Amino acid sequence: MTTYDDRASLTDLTAVVERVRSSVEGVIEGKPEVVRLSLTVLLAEGHLLIEDVPGVGKTMLAKALARSIDCSVRRIQFTPDLLPSDITGVSIWDQQHQDFEFKPGAVFAQVVIGDEINRASPKTQSALLESMEERQVTIDGKTYELPSPFMVVATQNPVEMEGTYPLPEAQRDRFMARVSVGYPSAEAELQMLDVHGGVSPLEDLQPVAHAHEILKLIEAVRAVHVAEPVRRYVVELVSATRRHPDLRLGASPRATLHLLRAAKASAALSGREYALPDDVQALAVAVLTHRLLPTAQAQLNRRGAEHVVREILQSTPVPAAAPQPNGFGPGRGGPGYGSQPPRRL
Asked: What does each C-alpha distance from 136 to 50, 127, 261 come to in angstroms?
């Protein structure tokens, strides 16, 4: 049973998040919402896809997040000639021991940075499918567990850029969220010239959190309470994408699970023990959009997947809280949701 002493330790753990946030924001100026989403995905045990035009700091964001945590980090530069064995590893015959020896690939790290993932062939991209979903790699019939925590942070340029391949739907669905860094404001860009003009801030970036602290934070996120009305709200949002006339491919059940986990992580980042519909709404676009495929007619009408998700958010009723006999008062999204009190962290 979890005690109030365990709950008090949550305050100490949230201080870890603040240290990581400050460390990353020291490198990525003027993008606090992007940094928060990255931390949300990390604590929700997901994988992050950073998609934008070249030169806006995609790789810088991935490196800053990885270097802020004292854990194993491997970087993979995706190129057209990259082989699946370069990612997963390969078994090599050992002449001395007369047996095959497994040489781990670049995926055997706690944080894997996949730079320009859509420059590799779909065959090579698919080498990440098992590791991203099951956190393991199977080579020659033998399964190898990956370290924990495990997170893939991949960057990619838009598909219309030359020399890129579109990510397969199965690959995109394994990313919990997609974020676009975007161009900085004039003030942030001016500050960037002062900070980055001499040396890269990554050179002085030191780890501010340990891997075991991140694991404790992940456990705390798992214990965040999500009442039945909020869970139903998540299911209704995802189900609406499967019925929408402008979409030929809606979100999968994996998307439902990812949206719920991300909402729990967002609640924990806000210092709450329970998730609100507001957490779901704030993350729906980032979690769902990259999984959806608009119809040809919708594309002709310039109605993209993001527009459809925002339309679904506006049309789907938001659950309202009711007074509960547990002492919590009514209010939108408060602990009075459902028939059970929130679980203690």
From this structure: 23, 11, 21
DSSP state of 226: -
The Cβ-side half-sphere exposure at 30, using a 13 Å CA radius, reads: 15
Segment holding 174, helix H or strand E = none
Q: Report how far apart, in Å, the C-alpha atoms of 209 and of each of 48, 74, 138 are.
A: 19, 18, 31
In sign, the C-alpha dihedral spanning 229, 43, 106, 51 is positive
Inter-residue contact 207 to 67 (CB < 8 Å): yes
In the chain, the domains with their CATH numbers are: 4-222 (3.40.50.300), 225-345 (1.10.8.80)
End-to-end CA distance of the chain: 10
Give DSSP secondary structure letters for 80-97: TT--HHHHHEEEEEETTT
Cis peptide before 104 (omega within 30 of 0): no
What span, in angstroms and rounded, lies between the C-alpha atoms of 277 and 326?
21
Q: What is the pLDDT of residues 155-186, one digit of tens each?
A: 988 866 677 788 888 899 999 999 988 887 78
* Region of residue 119 (phi > 0: left; psi between -120 and 50: alpha; otherwise: beta): alpha
Q: What is the pLDDT of residues 103-132, one digit of tens each?
A: 999 999 999 999 999 888 888 888 899 999
Give the pairing of strands 209-210 and 151-156: unpaired
Q: What is the pTM of this model?
A: 0.86
C-alpha span between 62 and 264 (Å, rounded): 22
Which residues have CB under 8 Å from 15's CB, separation 6+? none
